[in-house]
Amino acid sequence: MMNRTLSAIMIAGAVFALGMPSFAAADGKPATYTVTLRSGKVLQDAYILDKKPNGITVAHKDGAMFIPFSDMPLEYQQKFGYDPIKSARYEKKLHEQKKAAEKEEEERKEKEAKRKSGDDKRYKSRKLLEQQQKVRRLELELEEAQKRLDTTDKTIGENRSALAGMTTMDTSRVSIESPWGYGGRIRSGKNNAVLTNRLLKENDKLEFNRNKQAQDVIDLKLKLEAAQRSLALMKENLGE
After folding, report:
1. N- or C-end of the chain: fewer Cβ atoms within 10 A?
2. Are 58 and 64 spatial neighbours (Cβ–Cβ below 8 Å)?
3. What is the Cα–Cα distance from 48 to 25, expressed in whole angstroms?
4. Would you tell me how many other CB atoms lie within 10 Å of the CB of residue 163?
């Protein structure tokens, strides 16, 4: 009702330009009234801004308002040409327009909700794919890290076996494999001492690297487990 009142005020100039002769004074100025409504409200210096089949919009001393014909005294209903049948038809039309607008708004909101739901699902699907790729990447990294650790463990074991064999050597010839390709066969004595020293230093370095590699494997396993848990939760949210 307030919207109709404001709209009517905005077009007041156009209404006056049309003249509305049945509601205008002889001097061309809008006729004014003091109207007492059925509710008891009194409107002073009231004049018509707009007329509809179900009532009129008036400006008055204290503002403006829409007055349904049903709230007017009988004399004003007759004065302003109130027709109950036309009023009922108009009210029905307004009701239908309101229902149509509400339905249209409801459909718009439903479409918007579906669009957002679709966008949300596509977003979640994209994040799921990214998480799957992350899990696979961590699996490959863990596999490579484990291979490096296994290779280091194997080399350390071979060096330890070589060192153990060299401590029991006298002047006999012995075949060993070393990371430096020291010549498959070596003699005891001075050559053994040099090789033993090198093997000991190499094993110290390998042991240091091995500890770091082992920690890398542990860290990757923890990251992989966390990524797998996140992936499982994302699949659950998507209903997979």
Report:
1. C
2. yes
3. 12
4. 15
Query: Is-contact 145 213, C-beta < 8 A?
Result: yes
Spell 203-218 as b/e; 16+ CB within 10 A means b: beebeeebeebeebbe
Q: Is the Cβ–Cβ distance between 216 and 141 less than 8 Å?
A: no
Which tops the pLDDT comparison, 1 or 99? 99
Which sign does the torsion angle of CA 57, 62, 63, 65 carry?
Answer: negative
Q: Which residue has the tokens 């153990």?
A: 164
- List the chain domain ranges: 2-82, 129-237
CATH code 3.40.1000 for 129-237: no
- How many degrees, rounded to 5, is the angle at CA 161 between CA 159 and CA 164? 110
Q: Which fold has domain 2-82?
A: SH3 type barrels. (2.30.30)
Structure token digits, residue 72: 């007017």
In order of 15, 67, 116, 123, 233, the CA distances from 237 in angstroms are 61, 56, 16, 12, 6
| pLDDT score, position 27 | 55
Q: What is the mean pLDDT of residues 20-34?
A: 57
CA distance 47 to 26: 14
